[in-house]
Amino acid sequence: MARITTTTLRDKKAKNEKITMLTSYDYSTAVMVDQAGIDMILVGDSLGNVVLGYENTLAVTMEDMIHHTKAVTRATSNCLVVGDMPFLSYHVSTQEAVRNAGRFLKEAGAQAIKLEGGTERVDTVKAILDAQIPVMGHIGLTPQSVNQLGGFKVQGKDLDTARKMIEDARAMDEAGVFALVLECVPTLLAKRITEEVSCPTIGIGAGHYCDGQVLVINDMLGMFSGHIPKFVKKFANLQPLIIAALKDYKKEVETGTFPGEEHGFTIKDDVLERLY
Ligand code: KIV
After folding, report:
1. 6-237: which CATH architecture?
2. Do residues 133 and 100 make contact, with C-beta atoms less than 8 angstroms apart?
3. Which of 178, 203, 228, 272 has the CB geometry, 3.0–4.6 Å to 210, for a possible disulfide?
4. Rounded to 10 degrees, what is the CA torsion of 208, 75, 217, 37?
5. Nearest alpha carbon to residue 120 among 156, 168, 85
6. How does pLDDT run across 72-106, given as a tens digit for each residue?
7. How confident is the model at residue 108 (pLDDT cuts 50, 70, 90)?
8. Mean pLDDT over residues 114-124, rounded?
């Protein structure tokens, strides 16, 4: 199977076929996501919450992102891998933004990057695209703006903010993003945006009219004990299964049941005899 490209995604939108995306942050998980036939992996800066244990994504660094993106790209041959630009990696200057975006492709082997923001990021997006780096946009609830937004809330519920979101979506689409994440957006506003823009929209908490869907993998597999947003469906509940397995392991080690003979390695008798 050939790797999914940005063209595949546009074709899917044209054919009304849904696009699938999940986050991953490590090799073993990315192998499973790739094998499951998911279209895209986002190495999200949600890494900060679900892997590094921070309260939000602001502390995540370029080095964190490159390290984890490398692990994910080593695992994939089918998925399109998108590296998420962390807070302050694209805000200071366009030059710095292009250099940091380039690191995801050059050092980490990703095929594209994602960044948050609307009209205020158009120049940055264009500069990154000029360097031949595909860009995915992200509007609505943009977690890197949590302090400005006053918390993790649904966006675009009143006329002014809904209009601003449509303006942001148009601006990103015209700038040339290959897809646009809509996070925590009312269903019918997401529908309106999806119909209006030429690029595929990828929803998270944005209802069922988007061209595709993304979720944080730890949330949808039930492997995260922090706050789980209302829009998440748990497709598995692995945390209790894992804790039960860990308790079994503890019990078996403590009682001498594990390791058994079958888990050991042999040594020839004559070698053993000559030891003493
Ligand atoms: O970092 C992340 O996982 C994201 C998704 C929530 C879209 O940006």
Report:
1. Alpha-Beta Barrel (3.20)
2. no
3. 203
4. 30
5. 168
6. 999 999 999 999 999 999 999 999 999 999 999 99
7. very high
8. 98
pLDDT tens-digit profile of 16-70? 999 999 999 999 999 999 999 999 999 999 999 999 999 999 999 999 999 999 9
Active site residue 195: no
Q: Which of 116, 183, 196, 273 is catalytic?
A: 183
Nearest CA to ligand 1 atom 1: 44
Residue 225: what pLDDT?
82
Residues of the chain with CATH 3.20.20.60: 6-237
The share of the chain scoring above pLDDT 90, in percent, equals 96
Q: How far is the CA of 42 from the centre of ligand 1 (A)?
A: 7
- For residue 22, the cross-strand partners are 41, 215
- Is residue 55 within 8 A of residue 46, CB to CB? The reply is no
228 and 218 Cβ atoms separated by less than 8 Å: no
For the stretch 123-178, pLDDT in tens is: 999 999 999 999 999 999 999 999 999 999 999 999 999 999 999 999 999 999 99
Q: Which of 38, 65, 138 to mutate to test the pocket of ligand 1 (most atoms within 8 A of CB)?
A: 138
Catalogue the E-assigned strands of the chain.
19-23, 40-43, 80-84, 112-114, 135-140, 179-183, 201-204, 212-215
Asked if residue 44 has its Cβ within 6 Å of ligand 1, the reply is yes
